[in-house]
Amino acid sequence: MPDRDQLILVSSNPNKGIEAERILGIPLLRVSLVLPEIQAATVEEITRYKLEIARTKGYNRLIVEDVSLGFDELGNFPGPYVRWLLEAAGGKGLAAIAYALNNRAAKAECCVAYWDGAKGHIFCGVSAGEILVEPRGERHFGWDAWFQPRGSKKTFAEMSDDGKDNVSHRGDAYRKLAAHLKASNG
Predict the structure, then answer these.
(1) Predicted TM-score of the model (pTM)
(2) 2 lies in a domain?
(3) What DSSP designation does 146 have?
């Protein structure tokens, strides 16, 4: 069992841990647990549920997160179900949907839930952009090669770590958590 004051990131995805540590600027202990994900309409609902499940594991201070990616024209579909779309059809499936649409505008969301030992806190971040038909960039984490944030000529996969962190949904959410931790000396 980790030290009671150690900040734990509960995630089965090592890339999420790397990004979270980099954005927060503090070391995290990543505990790889596969948490059940409810089928909910919003990423915030899913994140709240994951926090409740993770809390039952006995960790004092912990973080869980979930992401969503959806097309504006499709009412935010696939939204929180993007993981299953990618598992079933890969980035090519995402690109096929983009190709069929007149408007490829999309929204990426990340919600981070933090348990401080007594209370849960939710921090959500958003990045608006578009889904490309052809992937660009060498760094393939999820759908990074297909998502180009608004105002950028680069996809997440083409950006430096700092560049991505400054404009990404995950960067937005974790900066809010970092401000909370600083304000609460956590």
Answers:
(1) 0.92
(2) no
(3) T
